[in-house]
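Side project, low priority. Logging it here so it doesn't get lost.
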Amino acid sequence: MPKAVLTLNAGSSSIKFALYELGHSTQRLISRGMIEGIGEAPRFTACAPDGAVLESRAWQPAAAASHEQLLQPLLAWITAHLGDEALVAVGHRVVHGGALFHSPARIDPTVLAELEKLVPLAPLHQPHNLAAVKAVGSLRPDLLQVACFDTAFHHGMPAVAQRLPLPRSYTDAGVRRYGFHGISYEYLAGRLRALAPTLSKGRVIMAHLGNGASLCAMRHGRSIDTSMSFTALDGLMMGTRCGSIDPGVVLYLQNACGLDVAAVEHLLYHDCGLLGVSGISNDMRSLVESEDPRAREAIDLFVYRIVKEIGALTAVLGGLDALVFSAGIGEHAACIRSEVCDALAWLGVECDELANDRHETSISTPRSAVRVLVVATDEEAMIAAHTAELMRARSPLLMEERRVS
């Protein structure tokens, strides 16, 4: 009987999942899908790799509110689809691993307790990541669960890139720059090695541009610096998050505007970024289509902040050989890629507009001093690979059992 691993990326309003069959050293995608509309009218959809719908289910509004209630039909569908003993492990995206977790980890009560301590550092993500872990533990306590951390890829950054200019007592307590989107960056680094081995060894900036957005400077495929910091609030302007902001603004919001800590936190995570500047939407597609001048202002600021941060990371790298766009906006918004490239003409960046409009992998002209690429990210594939690796280490006879069955 084929063995399978499930990946879960649990958020506040949706749970993304993917199901992979284990091979001897690789994983084959079986299905991917989403449980969306959490808290309103939840819907479960599972699709084949070609996009064909395999299963679809909807709940009544306000029904099935807990992660356990939501994940139960997914696990039941997997059992019906693959058999009782097919699913052997679940890999989770966990946004914050803190200073303790440098690589994927098997989740046990001790690990879970440590991850709970990090909730204040990622309040928008960590509680939902861990809620999915607890739900699976309750529904299927026999399954191996693995945490894959968005912070882990950046643990090797130089010490100077990790340090914040605070008293040493706070640094010793773990207040430092961690960086995020590491699962995506690890996958992209691997894809770039496959696409352009020589280029991947050079000075590269990866741009993960989605509702959450960040940049990562790499050399030899390793993180040298990144735009996000102690939390996922820092760096680029995002869908609803502010990105880098003068700490004095936070003090002003509290002292002059009367906002308490909870109100400031909600503002910075939920009401800023593209949504806050435009007053229209956090969705770049809606802003690009809008004729409202506020939408244009939001887009201009989004591009400006990206270009400004690329300039800083280029200085850290000592030059730039390649720029890679990825994630929702990076992969699909040709106009944003074009504007960023135009603003980087001083670096010798030259965009091939026809290739860009066609969303080709290489979108720079032959004359461009910097290679510009568009590479689709796949965090689920990275999580599945790490989960399978730990699964094989834990059960070396797994593949033998598969051949016998």
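Brief comment: The two ends are 5 Å apart (CA to CA).
Revisit when time allows.
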